[in-house]
Amino acid sequence: MTQQRTTAEGGMETSFGYRDVAEGQKQPLVDAVFHRVAGRYDLMNDLMSGGLHRLWKDAMVTWLNPPRRGGWNALDVAGGTGDIALRIVDASDGAAFVTVLDINGSMLEVGRERAARKGVDGRLDFVEANAEELPFEDETFDAYTIAFGIRNVPRIEVALSEAWRVLKPGGRFLCLEFSEVTMPILDRVYEAWSFRAIPQIGKAVTGDAESYEYLVESIRRFPRQSDFAAMIARAGFSRVTWRDFSGGIAALHSGWKL
Ligand SMILES: C[S@@+](CC[C@H](N)C(=O)[O-])C[C@H]1O[C@@H](n2cnc3c(N)ncnc32)[C@H](O)[C@@H]1O
User: Fold this and answer.
1) Which among 44, 203, 207, 251 could bridge 179 via Cys, Cβ 3.0 to 4.6 Å?
2) What pTM does this model have?
3) Burial class of residue 231 in the structure, from the number of CB atoms within 10 Å of its CB (0-12 exposed, 13-18 middle, 19+ buried)
4) Do residues 104 and 122 touch, judged by C-beta distance below 8 A?
């Protein structure tokens, strides 16, 4: 068991929450979590974050600022139930085309149903694949987004180099992820909420505390803001910056393929 944050030097590939697992073992464990939670995923996001995740995701898409013209394509990796993709289509007044990629068919199925209900399924494509091995040609997309996904991907540096590969020159990388809380009192409140309340809410709503223990533990093991920025820069991205949301509970990292 290891509780320390991993760094820019790695460690997430063998970390399943606080458990150390052998190389190659993390992905099937992560997949099992998301197969279990898919049906209640959106509801649980609201309950766990008090709706804050909606504001962070809105801010992500505002920063992305998708153009209101056709011919602009985004790839939303670990796109799950389509939260980011639906926002991008909306913000572009239906002009953008978004490919939602996720390794988990159960999550994508929820996304497909949502897109059809909203009548925007013509602007979205759903692809079941691994972020570490994107089934696209080099220089295909204008933007690459990933929200609350990268810490679940075992080999983060491989996913980042795949992001760089599939982006067109001038393309934008944006990653929203839980991060390190930097405000003194907030960090203790957040700690108590994460480790006491969230698994209990998970248990009450889904009957499954374990999946939510993984969630909070994986957040604690993910590299802090500056370390993750270094990893993004190392993958080849330029002008890497980030902004914290809610005192660092989440951080939005940005980079450009220049
Ligand atoms: C916490 S959910 C985020 C979903 C969505 N982006 C959101 O913000 O609501 C994490 C997602 O990462 C996906 N995932 C985990 N490992 C992956 C991988 N190697 N490649 C692609 N997706 C992966 C999971 O299946 C899950 O849907």
Assistant:
1) 251
2) 0.97
3) buried
4) no
CB hemisphere CA count around 199 (13 angstroms): 12
10-residue stretch averages of pLDDT, the chain, 258 residues long: 92 96 97 94 91 97 97 98 98 98 98 96 96 98 98 98 98 98 91 91 90 94 98 98 97 98
d(CA 33, CA 80): 13
CA distance linking residue 175 with residue 44, whole number of Å: 21
| Ligand 1 site residues, Cβ closer than 6 angstroms | 27, 30, 34, 77-80, 83-84, 102-104, 107, 130-132, 147-149, 152-153
Structure-token pair, residue 179: 């991060």
Contact 174, 144 (CB under 8 A): yes
Pairing of β 97-102 and β 73-77: parallel
How many residues can be counted in the chain? Answer: 258
- Going by CA atoms, what residue is nearest to atom 1 of ligand 1? 148
Output the residue whose Cα is nearest ligand 1's atom 25.
104
Q: Give the Å distance between the CA of 107 and the centre of ligand 1.
A: 8
- Residue 207 pLDDT: 87
Q: Atom 15 of ligand 1 has which residue's CA nearest to it? A: 152
Q: Phi and psi for 16 in degrees, rounded to 5? A: -110, 95
